[in-house]
Amino acid sequence: MPDTVLSSGMLRHVTERDTAVFGGSTAVEYYFRVASMSIAFYDYFLTLPIEYRFYRSQPHVLRMSQACVLFILIRYISIITMIVSNYGAFATSFTIESCRQYYYISPIFKVLQTMVSQAILGFRTFNITGRDKRIRDFLLVCYTIAVTFEWFLNLYHRTPEAINASLFIHE
After folding, report:
1. In this structure, what DSSP letter does residue 156 have?
2. Per-residue pLDDT averaged across 35-50, rounded?
3. Longest distance between any two alpha carbons in the chain, whole Å
């Protein structure tokens, strides 16, 4: 049975073939989403005592090390990214208007998560190379170029579609 979709301001019917061709969600995708969230939350609760000890080792809340700040950023931006992304996949209450308001949130958090991950790799590379200023400058230029492309490629020409009141983004 076809579903009704608003695409470019016009309602159209979506068949099973359309869903397969355009990457609509399937039961397998939902199983993978639930499995990945289960593993992530299991890991989170398993490492919570270690995280607490890491925070306690810092001299002051306002004087945390770069490693601690990056750890906090990657840990909690990743959690927010998973929650936001899965909410968009599992929610069944999207209207066309709420879809238009929501569909940029997930890619924004995805890019923020990637930026923090790349910053961690950059700091590690900089430290491994003996804090060479030429390497630092090279890494900063590469980071700036990569981040610019990530923002552009993740946010440019995104089109929201609501299928069965769930949110799908065609990139």
Report:
1. T
2. 95
3. 63
Tokens of 14: 């979506």
Query: Which structure tokens are listed for 90?
Result: 């599992």
> What pLDDT, on a 0 to 100 scale, did the predictor assign at position 168?
52
Residue 141 pLDDT = 98
- The β-bridge partners of 166 are 163
Residue 90 phi, psi dihedral angles, 5° rounding: -95, -20
Given CA atoms 161, 164, 168, 170 in this order, what sign does their dihedral have?
negative
- Cα separation, 54 vs 60, in Å, equals 12
CA dihedral 159, 24, 149, 134 (to 10 degrees): 160
Q: How far is CA 34 from CA 38, 44, 51, 97, 168, in A?
A: 6, 15, 24, 27, 17
What is the C-alpha to C-alpha distance for residues 79 and 88, in angstroms, rounded to an integer?
14
- Return d(Cα 156, Cα 153) in angstroms, integer: 6
Say what the pLDDT of residue 2 is.
43
Strands 166-170 and 159-163 come out as antiparallel
| Amino acid occupying residue 81 | T
Can you give the pTM of this predicted structure? 0.74
